[in-house]
Amino acid sequence: MPETLTIPTRRTAARIQGAGLLAISALLLAGCAPAATGAAPEETTAAASGTVTITDNHGEIEVPVNPERVIALDNTTFQTLSDWGINVVAAPKPLMESVWPDLAGGDEVLDVGLHREPDLEAVIEAEPDLIIGGYRFQDYYEDLKDIQPKTIEINPRDGEEATSELKRQVEILGQIFDKEAEAAETVAAFDTAIADAKSAYNGTDTVVGLITSGGEIAYAAPGEGRGVGQLFPTIGLTPAIDQAAEDASHGDDISVEAIAQANPEWMIVLDRDAGTGEEGATAAAELIAGAEALQNVPAVQKNQIVYLDPTFYLDEGIQAYTGLYTDVAAAFSGASS
């Protein structure tokens, strides 16, 4: 499960479960349902666009095409929805306002709060046609399904090949929002960035993945470490340190002396605090520059350090990874020129 964030919520919301949740949902939705008026087809809601059967993380489900009232909770979909001009009726505003203000909207977009204590009453009040759940909100899947059976989870699944999962996610969104051509373009850009990174890598330089948070430097395991890990199998990077992850999300404890002993040619670093906007946090570049033991390793001496975009930790969608592979390709190419 992805860890909690330190971004403060705007309000504290009570979680409603069980029979009470179902009763409130039924009352609100029934009370707001329009009476049958014999409206012309062009005046009907999302059902007029038809439906599509997709396969989400739980199996096949029929959902509306171009649903009018969408709740988006999975941050890995936010950039895609933003790029396609999709409006939402409710969302976790504290998670998105700094990066996707267009999605967060004004008062017309209800605030679901963060996954630590989501406001399920706001979900009910929004009367969604579709809820895109999952990832940080995955613990609330059953609660969301009780409110709106058309709830899907399409976030990348643990244990599946990472790049294929990112493509699958955007392709499913393309089916739902009638944006299959745009989804194909997004996938093509992603594939190009990966190919460029593979081509730029010399195949021998050793690389270590790191995650910094709270003034500490942690180890991101190849294939498993958050953000950084998937680059190793995808590009074929040679690990300077090759051990399995104990904490893939936060990174594993490691001493700067152990990193120095591994003598990496490259470092690829995720700064979690940069993403959360942690007040008073020490930037990853400062932590590395201030670690005396690291000053003689090739990555530091040659300035061969790639820092993930500060918004990466909040995003983690296919576009974020496209940017990361692009940055890695540029760094490798620059070092070899």
Briefly summarize what is shown.
This protein is of the alpha/beta class. The protein has 15 helices and 13 strands.
Could you name the key traits of this structure?
single chain, 337 residues, alpha/beta, three-stranded parallel β-sheet, 15 helices, 38% helix, 15% strand, disordered N terminus
Layout of helices and strands, plus pairs?
Layout (H helix, E strand, L loop, with lengths): L17 H15 L18 E6 L2 E6 L5 E3 L5 H6 L6 E2 L1 H4 L4 H4 L5 E2 L8 H6 L4 E4 L7 H7 L3 E3 L8 H15 L3 H21 L5 E8 L2 E5 L10 H6 L1 E2 L12 E2 L2 H7 L3 E6 H5 L7 H6 L8 H4 L3 E3 L4 H4 L2 H19 L1
Parallel strand pairs: 3-6, 4-5, 6-7, 8-10, 8-12, 12-13
Antiparallel strand pairs: 1-2, 8-9, 9-11
Protein described:
This protein is of the alpha/beta class. 38% of the residues lie in helices and 15% in strands. It is built from 15 helices and 13 strands. Strands 8, 9, 10, 11, 12 and 13 form a six-stranded mixed sheet that branches. Strands 3-6-7 form a three-stranded parallel sheet, with helices on one face. The chain has a two-stranded antiparallel ribbon with strand order 1-2. A hairpin with a 2-residue loop joins strand 8 and strand 9. Helix 7 runs antiparallel to helix 8. It starts with 17 loop residues before the first helix and ends with a helix. The N terminus is likely disordered.
